From TrEMBL, chains A, B:
<dbReference type="GO" id="GO:0045892">
    <property type="term" value="P:negative regulation of DNA-templated transcription"/>
</dbReference>
<comment type="subunit">
    <text>Homodimer.</text>
</comment>
<feature type="domain" description="Phosphoribosyltransferase">
    <location>
        <begin position="109"/>
        <end position="251"/>
    </location>
</feature>
<dbReference type="InterPro" id="IPR029057">
    <property type="entry name" value="PRTase-like"/>
</dbReference>
<dbReference type="Pfam" id="PF09182">
    <property type="entry name" value="PuR_N"/>
</dbReference>
<keyword id="KW-0238">DNA-binding</keyword>
<dbReference type="InterPro" id="IPR036388">
    <property type="entry name" value="WH-like_DNA-bd_sf"/>
</dbReference>
<dbReference type="Pfam" id="PF00156">
    <property type="entry name" value="Pribosyltran"/>
</dbReference>
<feature type="domain" description="Bacterial purine repressor N-terminal">
    <location>
        <begin position="4"/>
        <end position="73"/>
    </location>
</feature>
<dbReference type="GO" id="GO:0003677">
    <property type="term" value="F:DNA binding"/>
</dbReference>
<keyword id="KW-0804">Transcription</keyword>
<dbReference type="InterPro" id="IPR015265">
    <property type="entry name" value="PuR_N"/>
</dbReference>
<dbReference type="InterPro" id="IPR010078">
    <property type="entry name" value="PurR_Bsub"/>
</dbReference>
<protein>
    <submittedName>
        <fullName>Pur operon repressor</fullName>
    </submittedName>
</protein>
<comment type="similarity">
    <text>Belongs to the purine/pyrimidine phosphoribosyltransferase family. PurR subfamily.</text>
</comment>
<dbReference type="InterPro" id="IPR050118">
    <property type="entry name" value="Pur/Pyrimidine_PRTase"/>
</dbReference>
<dbReference type="InterPro" id="IPR036390">
    <property type="entry name" value="WH_DNA-bd_sf"/>
</dbReference>
Length: 289, 289
């Protein structure tokens, strides 16, 4: 099939965008579009501009035998701020407060569009170049962890709370959940994580950090190392978490009926944070409204 | 910011592709690209060609006050067949057989790329024009259900197996799981599904259909109606399922060490099925290999 130049460019954008962090050789495109290498190279220059002008990440060229091009998704500072501010407004809606000080959030965190944006923000703020997989614990973190794994082009591993014998030999552990201060169990099939793997942990909520600490310990049992951690919401108290190095998108404090929710940009990568401190944004004004 | 024609086309492809089934007005694009309506209209003709030539779905124009353009993802017959045959080969690997006749599949069904393709195939074979949400039951079906919801631009609802009081007033029920013939429970917060909703059910595995039947009953309790059902794998036996109207992507029979796995194209939409019967594909040959 014959593609015009404009169509080829659209098609290359679609293919790269659907497959973040996957390397495509020049040969793949010359074949698919029945076009010369020089033609595809020119197309790729336009494609690179598209992603950069939209501030949706970078298309980079990798040289060598395993070379080609790949698309690295990255969210812009402006996009992050707008998205997180909107989300904070939704979260702080009074009707979300449940008895016991819990918040009803599953309509938001299960939403595919929101989960997808969260995944891209995690991928923009966690170094995953060396990572082998994304690990989460069921259930509420799964949508955002899957979208993170998609943006990073990594497999997803889900830790179960019960022991599923139907998954073969399984390693189980107990941990103390900060939510309930109860001893809970987690389990994972032996073959789900290979020894010496480097993993990224993703979870939806962190209070004291007990769950993330438990997941880290479980990874040690597999001989795997945690090289990055992302949580969607962390609470302001306790300030001293069991986990030190993490990014959390939103900070939360519930004081009776009073909910304080704000973007937690200080845990973001330097490039986002510095701009935030020096920049022209008016997040604090919006919060004070 | 100024975009050249080729860049605009790439950018429109990216925006539509990232937001399936979302309507964008012409004004959105004229604003974003600082271009005339006639210019954007011309661009959209090229964009439509891109999706059709790649066989990745359709861009349609909606007239009227709420009008604009939207992208409806759709997988092609050739893509479905290639993807499902590859998957069947992976599934039938002997090393996946666990004691008790179970199969180790979580590395496949949690994979973001695979889950994403499964979601697009479901979206191509289930009528969701009237649907309000996608409903699944934890845990293994969540990744494919999320990707289905993303392709359909619908919210995702996850039924829990335990009762989570932290989600507010919750409706719980028991059902008989075909896997274990045990009575199990499922629960869902009252506010997760609105009365008179129309829902799509997605699950990873169906033997007798007890789980899907239970999910359907739970939806009745919410005053909601199931208008489509998709399962990833269904077993050949029992032939007579509790559920009649569903699409299943793969059919499975485990007979001791002997695993028969094949694409279940007869449950696909007519357009796929007829082509399959009449067509030039060689699926049966591949299976007999």
């Amino acid at each position: 099939m014959k593609f015009k130049r404009t169509e080829r460019i659209g098609a290359i954008v679609k293919i790269l965008s659907d497959n973040p962090n996957k390397i495509f050789t020049l040969g793949y495109f010359t074949n698919k579009f029945n076009a010369a290498k020089s033609t595809i190279s020119e197309d790729l220059i336009v494609v690179k501009n598209v992603f950069e002008k939209l501030e949706l990440g970078k298309v980079i060229t990798i040289s060598g035998a395993a070379g080609g091009v790949k698309y690295i998704p990255k969210t812009s500072k402006a996009e992050n701020e707008e998205f997180l501010m909107e989300l904070c407004q939704k979260i702080s809606d009074e009707s979300r407060v449940l008895s016991g000080g819990f918040l009803y959030l599953i309509d938001l965190i299960y939403d595919p569009t929101i989960a997808s944006k969260i995944g891209k923000i995690f991928a923009s703020n966690i170094d995953y170049a060396e990572a082998d997989c994304v690990v989460t614990m069921e259930t509420k973190g799964i949508p955002m962890a899957l979208m993170t794994a998609k943006a990073m082009n990594l497999p997803l591993v889900i830790i179960r709370k019960d022991i599923k014998v139907s998954e073969g030999p399984t390693l189980s552990m107990t941990y103390v959940s900060g939510n309930t201060s109860k001893v809970e169990s987690m389990s994972l099939p032996r073959r789900a994580v290979k020894p010496n793997s480097k993993v990224i942990l993703i979870d939806d909520f962190m209070r004291g950090g007990g769950t993330i600490k438990g997941m880290t310990d479980l990874m040690s049992e597999f001989g795997a190392e945690v090289i990055g951690t992302g949580v969607f919401i962390s609470t302001m108290k306790p300030e001293d978490k069991m986990v030190k190095d993490y990014i959390s998108l939103i900070q939360l404090d519930v004081n009776g009926d009073n909910i304080i929710v704000e973007p937690n940009l200080k845990t973001f990568k330097d490039e986002y944070q510095k701009e935030f401190v020096e920049g022209d944004c008016d997040i604090e004004e919006i919060i004070e409204d």
